[in-house]
Specification:
Layout: H1 2-5, E1 15-19, E2 35-37, E3 40-42, E4 47-50, E5 53-56, H2 62-82, H3 88-104, H4 115-133, H5 141-148, H6 153-171, H7 175-178, E6 182-183, E7 198-199, E8 205-209
Antiparallel strand pairs: 1-8, 2-3, 4-5, 6-7
């Protein structure tokens, strides 16, 4: 490991780790009580915050979504209080830069997330749209999102992933993701051979300094 090759020690009191695993119903192995790294023992945490994203063991993102929604509603209330004084274009800019950006941050990680969490995020976006356009609470939201040119939450995620994969495959950018994209090669000649499918890579452990 890098620590051993460079004669460095890991400070276990300033480090944290997490082990990702399936849901409890699918777990067939015992829990990992401790992890030894370069002679230092670390006790895995149930959650870990990395680059502003709260990760839990089953990657449900329940706690992260709750935190994002709470933060967004706080800013939506502030925008609502001053909305009457803002031109519509300014209100759109504020909404996108302060609130929509929080919904979009690292949203590619949400693929496969529970429908209830997606609904929580969608309610935030719906509320934001009604505030920006000064529409009633019970007015149809689809027309409001269309007027703002905002894709719904799940479609925004699909668009981001598709755009990123396109850039990696055709432009080889960003380079730090290029080696993580594995092309699917079937063992036999199948119809899927020409569909440009990809293989997924699973990472089971994150260790980082606190």
């Amino acid at each position: 490991m890098w620590l051993l090759h460079n004669s460095r020690c890991l400070n276990s009191t300033k480090s944290d780790a997490i082990v990702f695993r399936p849901s409890r119903q699918q777990v067939t192995h015992t829990n990992v009580d401790t992890i030894s790294v370069s002679g230092s023992v670390i006790t895995p945490s149930s959650t870990l915050k990395s680059l502003g994203v709260v990760l839990d063991r089953s990657l449900s993102f329940d706690q992260h979504v709750t935190a994002v929604c709470k933060n967004c509603y706080f800013h939506i209330r502030a925008v609502r209080q001053v909305r009457a004084s803002l031109p519509e274009d300014v209100a759109k800019t504020v909404a996108c830069s302060i609130i929509q950006s929080r919904l979009d941050y690292c949203n590619a990680l949400f693929t496969g997330m529970s429908e209830s969490n997606f609904k929580k995020l969608q309610r935030v976006q719906n509320t934001l749209a009604t505030v920006v356009l000064r529409r009633g609470q019970y007015e149809h939201i689809t027309s409001a999102l269309a007027e703002l040119h905002w894709l719904p939450i799940q479609q925004r995620i699909t668009f981001k992933i598709a755009t990123t994969i396109f850039k990696i495959r055709h432009l080889h950018q960003p380079t730090y993701l290029l080696h993580l994209l594995n092309h699917y090669t079937p063992t036999h000649s199948l119809r899927s051979s020409s569909q440009l499918l990809l293989q997924t890579t699973v990472f089971a452990l994150i260790i980082r300094p606190l």
